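hi!! sorry for the late reply, been swamped w classes. u asked for the two structures so here they r. pasted raw, havent cleaned anything up. first the sequence of the first protein and right below it the tokens
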Amino acid sequence: MNVNSKSGQRIIERGRVYAAVAAACLAAPAIHAQPVGVGTNAEEVTEIGIAFGAGRSDNVLRQGANESAGTYASLGAQMDIVRTRPRFNVAVAGDIEYRDYTTDGFDAERVGIIDASLEALAVPDRFSWYVGGRGGQGRTDPFGVESPENRENIDIYETGPRVTLPFGQRTSAELSATAGRRYFEVSSSLDSATTDVEAGLYRVLSPTSQLGLVVSTRSTEYDLSIYDNDVERAYLAYTKEFATGSAALSVGSNRVDNGTSVETGPYLFAQWQRRVGARSVFTTTLMNQYVDAADNIDYERLIVFGGDPGGLDSSVLLSQDVYESTDLLTSLTINGTRTTVTFGASLGEARYMTDFALDNDVINLSAVVERDMSSRMALGFEFDYAHRDFVLGPQEDDDKFIRLWLQREFSGPFSGRLGFGHNARSGNETADYDENVWTLGFQYDIRSSGGA
């Protein structure tokens, strides 16, 4: 197996990950309530990469002045695990790394994203119990650069029942109720409890299409705040599979009540995904909805999965406020015999209900190229650019991230990787910085897949 079959496949997933995860999370809640292949042993995937290494930064705190170098040892894992059994489903996906800094004053930290779920099928295709958790990071100071001193963990845990009630062969009702807890490592005022209730009536129109009417409500109660809120949605959801791709459209209404004011707005999820050739994918997605800081973890994993946990910084800005998020995302992956290329672009707009200072517009551009130099060696390049404009203030930030790496496969599943990165911000003078990072890592891969 050549290098491109491993790391190149991760790039393919990164190219379409915006749409693939968003579609599952937002456009088709029925997929969560009744995953394809439940109780049939239809799919099994095990892809685990255990990595260890070290990194050195010449400006670890990303400061414009008084720069200080930092070195860290790392232990991480990339995981894609799927198990379907007659009585349970398990899914684990993540790209996570633990760093232990040798520089005095820096605590060990976790970077990257992880998502895990277990669904116990008490009555297959009728009643199940879901337990899940996910974790990522956010910026404690929304206006500062992400660094070991401005990054904190966000952990979310959820559990609850899911019920499917069939009405004939083509119509079903799906109900779910989930209780959750959300923990923030530093910003304890954002610690909160959530309750989600969702009901959907679905009609199979053809073997490749489905129409649904969905209503949902989520209540959030903060431990140390009076800014509790309720977010309600009602929308029509349509999905269609084509020979060369898929389409999804959800249209409806959002309503959010934070106790002092009420806002309403459109709910929209529109996605078109098309396979171009045997292994290339083009995807475009448009979304509009009310979310909060913890919800943003779902969108951050769209970027991190398939990439490098030390790559593009987290854009999760920590606030108790709910905001209206509008996003247009597009990506194109071209996978040749020896070269894989991915282009991505997105436009985003966030408008907060009360925390107006955080209103911002974002532009993201990315390109990833990986070339097989031989059956055991690959060379890669990645460029990410993010421009964020805080609407009501003078701050505008341009963040640039450049990555170069050389990956070498040794005997069996063992491989090594040497990487160099240059990170920079320009904008406000007080926020400008330049950073160079060298990394050396080794990985052991456990990979198997198959279906019954």
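now the second protein. again sequence first, tokens right under
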Amino acid sequence: MALSFRCEHCGKDIVVRYLKIGEVAKCRHCGNYVAVPEESIEIESVPEQVRSTTGTVPGISSETQSPPITNPWTGIWFHPREAIRLALAGNRQTEAYAFAGIYGIVHNFHLMQRYGVSPELGISLWEITAANIFAGAVFGYLMLVLYSWVTSWVGRLLGGTSSVTNARIAIGWACLPYAALLIVIPLMFIDPQTFVYQPRTQISVSALYGYYFVLRSIITIWFLLIIVSAISEALRLSIGRSILVLLSPIILLVPASFLLILLYAQIYR
């Protein structure tokens, strides 16, 4: 059996075979994501000519895919495209902001662990920790806002058709695997010396830090692969162009920094 319904964006008919009511389909006419409505009509199995590589017949858009995921929280790890579709269809911005904030906190803890806290500051480890949590959350939020604006703008230049909101949801949800490192951060407090500044020549790497370093390296690679897929899905771009979009802030930062240096030189010459 299959379900047939009309796209709420372009009005074309959509036929799905593996989706249930409430799950998300992609219209092959307009490219928008649509939740399968309750008023969908059950039809007989899709004719054999529809089960081709294109999966289309005149006037009908058919989603011929494997059974989809239903939970983006778990799906983002192994099926990022499907998870991003669910997040986009549900306009799940709240979680995107939360994941970005946690990403910033983990990033700050990483810097705190890497460079240490000088005892000469006279500030306790817990005070530094509270400051890093607050600053990290703010950093993550601002990063998501600015980065989604840049990626959306560059994506449109490369032929993408998405909005800043879609880019923001995709990037925020892609942060979830990296944000999951927050679970293991408390383990670093077992040895308080982990966060104390030491000269590079005197650093002794503990086994606990070694395990954390390996785990963080694996998650970072995973995060990069997921965010490329997320940008590709949200902006409707190829993987190659999505990588260019991902690198665009760095590419744009070089001439921007050069212009700032020139401006500074002109003011204080």
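hope this helps!! also noticed smth abt the second:
The chain has two domains: 2-63, 72-267.
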